[in-house]
Structure formats: C-alpha cells, structure tokens
C-alpha cells in the first residue's frame, strides 16, 4: 500500500511515492499464484544464473556478458569473427526439433557480418568432444597426469569461500559504521544532510554486498554436485576407464574452449570444423559433420534395399498392365501366371529374355513390360 499518494484533495492529483509518504507492506494478503517453495526455487535459479555471469573483453575490445546456463555457454567461439556462439532450437514445434549453436554476430547483425558461419548441432559438438577425449586418453600418459592435476586444482579451489568470508567481514564493518553514524546523529554532532548522505551510501553498499553474498552461497551449493562428479571422474581416470556419455562437469574441467569454423587442411572454409583446446595446452581438430545425428526422413541406399544376386525375392517391381511386370537381374519374371528367373545383370537382357520366353510358351503379347530399377 502507498505506491502513490494524492497531492491535495481538490485537484486530486496523484504521484508515485518515492519516499515522500509512508508505504505499507502486508504479508500473505492475497492468495498466491504459486507456492512459496516454488518461488524460492525460482529465486535460487535466478541468483545462480546471475552469479555465474561474467563480463569479459574480447579481441575487439567489446565487453560481453554471458551466463553458464548450458555446458557450452561461453565455451564456443566463432572461428571467423571471434564472437561467442548462442544456443538455438530449430523446428521446436515438430518432431524434427534440433538444438544448434550459432554465431551471435550472424544471428543479431545478419549473415553478411559473418557470412561463413553456420549452425552446428549440439549433439555433434558433444560427439566431437567424446572422440577427442578418447584420443587424448590413449595418446599420452603424461597428458592424463596433467588432466588429473587440473581436476585436483578444480576440486581444491576455495576462491569462492574466501570471497564469501571477505564479504561477510565487510558487512560487519558496515553495520558498525551504521551504528556509529546513528549515535553521532543522536548526539547532534552531524547534521541531517550529512547523516542522510552517509546513511544512503552505507545502505547501498550493504544491499550490493548482501546480493553478492546470496549469489556466492547459491553457487557454492551447486558446486557441491559438480565437485562430486569431478571426484568420480578423477577415480574414472585413475582406473583407466572410458566415459560412456557426455558429462558437463568433465567437459568444463578439462576444456578451455572450442573454436567453431575455420580453414581445413585442404585450404577450404569449413563451418563445421571444431578446434578443441584443452586446459593442458593440447589441441585437436575434429570434423563436426561426422558427428551429426541422422536425418529422420533420410532414404536408405538403393544397394541396401535391393542387393545384387540375393537369395530372397524382394518383390521390388513396377506393376504393368495385363499382369505384366519385370524385376532386376536375379529376380523372378511373371506373365499370365507363368514365371522364370533371370541371372543376368544387364538392364535390357531381362526384358528380351522375358519376350522370348513368352513367345516360346505361346503366351499373349504383353502390352507393357517395365523394370523396377536399372543396374
């Protein structure tokens, strides 16, 4: 209550209340749309995403702000313009939904600003990482030792705990300053103007630090699960076993970044080329097209549908008029309930043989003979 106030009862002019009048907050007055537990969980997610946001300067001096909502957030870099890649969904309202990562410059400014970049499927990036990890795993024992040391440093990273302790101490100091300021005002040693100015400064700093504290505490809670998975991965490396599926914690612990797109070994521009840079300094190039998922409506190859000289009758034929039809070599030919089998591979010979067979058996002249497919 009290978001607005009336200036005077005659003009009935109302203004927004920015502190000129009292405000009143009534708790649990209305029936909530969502439960309190759901609201608190939503706030935790919001604060966690806000806490993971970082501000970095790229090669062009532009400062970009990003979050770690997904495993590849801020980890993918365009090989043509240097921008980060953004996650998008294609055909999201159909059975052909596909999650891809695309250059932000191309998305926001247009194709002409990054004409070579193309969207790359998320599953292809995951598959390329798994293949690079397998190659790295079997290539050099020293590299695996470096990976173990990297994971160990991730597990022993207490920078957030130190930052939380610093913020807590700073908040205590501000509370003492606030108490001293109130005492000085009560004793009449400072004026109202100075008191209000200093009090607002302390309140603003307290509010900022309190939000930072909540962000760090939320991040620390989520890191418990991450460190648990990293510990399992460390045991996995020590036992010399392979990963069977993509794991975000493992990816973030050993990969510095992935450059998407570039010039391949043949000197051609390849938007699907992936350059995986590990934290150990190792670099691997992968072809993202090799790891793309198969199209749902892709047709099978002809050779798989009708292999030559197969024993079974596939019955792949085109229907003609007057019960007339003809198949490829190795298939049965039929005319008016009479049949024979051809073993030749020539696409014309089966028709000639069918005609001669029909004449020798005094069968009616065919009106049409068709082949289902040519060799």
Automatic annotation (TrEMBL):
Taxonomy, superkingdom: Bacteria
Chain ranges of the Recombinase zinc beta ribbon domain: 72-134
Alphabetically ordered keywords of this record: Coiled coil, DNA recombination, DNA-binding
Pfam families (UniProt xref): Recombinase, Zn_ribbon_recom
MF term (GO), any: DNA strand exchange activity
Coiled coil: 157-184
Domain called Recombinase: residue spans: 12-48
InterPro entries, A to Z: DNA_bind_recomb_sf, DNA_bind_recombinase_dom, SSR_resolvase, Zn_ribbon_recom_dom
PANTHER family associated with the record: DNA-INVERTASE FROM LAMBDOID PROPHAGE, SERINE RECOMBINASE PINE-RELATED
Entry protein name: Serine recombinase
């Amino acid at each position: 209550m009290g978001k607005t106030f009336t200036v005077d009862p005659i003009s009935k002019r109302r203004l927004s209340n920015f502190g000129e009048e009292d405000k009143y907050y009534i708790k649990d007055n209305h029936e909530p749309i969502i439960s309190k537990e759901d609201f608190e969980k939503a706030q935790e997610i919001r604060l966690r995403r806000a806490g993971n946001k970082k501000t970095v300067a790229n090669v062009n001096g532009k400062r970009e702000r990003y979050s770690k909502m997904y495993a590849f957030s801020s980890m993918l870099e365009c090989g043509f313009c240097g921008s980060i890649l953004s996650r998008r969904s294609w055909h999201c309202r159909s059975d052909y939904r596909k999650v891809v990562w695309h250059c932000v410059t191309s998305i926001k400014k247009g194709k002409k600003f990054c004409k070579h970049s193309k969207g790359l499927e998320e599953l292809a990036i995951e598959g390329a990482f798994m293949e690079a990890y397998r190659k790295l795993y079997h290539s050099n024992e020293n590299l695996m030792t470096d990976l173990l040391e990297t994971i160990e440093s991730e597990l022993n990273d207490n920078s957030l705990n130190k930052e939380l302790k610093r913020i807590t101490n700073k908040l205590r100091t501000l509370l003492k300053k606030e108490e001293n300021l109130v005492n000085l005002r009560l004793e009449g040693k400072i004026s109202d103007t100075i008191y209000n100015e200093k009090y607002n400064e302390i309140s603003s700093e307290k509010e900022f630090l309190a939000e930072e504290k909540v962000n760090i505490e939320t991040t620390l809670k989520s890191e418990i699960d991450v460190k648990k998975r990293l510990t399992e991965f460390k045991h996995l490396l020590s036992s010399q076993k392979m990963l069977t599926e993509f794991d975000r914690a493992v990816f973030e612990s050993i990969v510095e970044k992935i450059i998407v797109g570039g010039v391949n070994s043949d000197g051609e521009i390849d938007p699907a080329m992936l350059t995986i840079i590990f934290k150990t300094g190792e670099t691997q190039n992968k072809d993202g097209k090799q790891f793309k998922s198969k199209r749902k409506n892709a047709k099978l190859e002809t050779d798989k549908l009708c292999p030559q000289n197969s024993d079974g009758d596939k019955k792949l034929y085109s229907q003609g008029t007057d019960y007339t039809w003809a198949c490829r070599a190795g298939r049965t030919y039929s005319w008016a309930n009479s049949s024979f089998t051809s073993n030749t591979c020539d696409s014309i010979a089966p028709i000639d043989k069918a005609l001669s067979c029909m004449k020798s058996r005094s069968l009616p002249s065919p009106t049409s003979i068709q082949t289902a497919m040519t060799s």
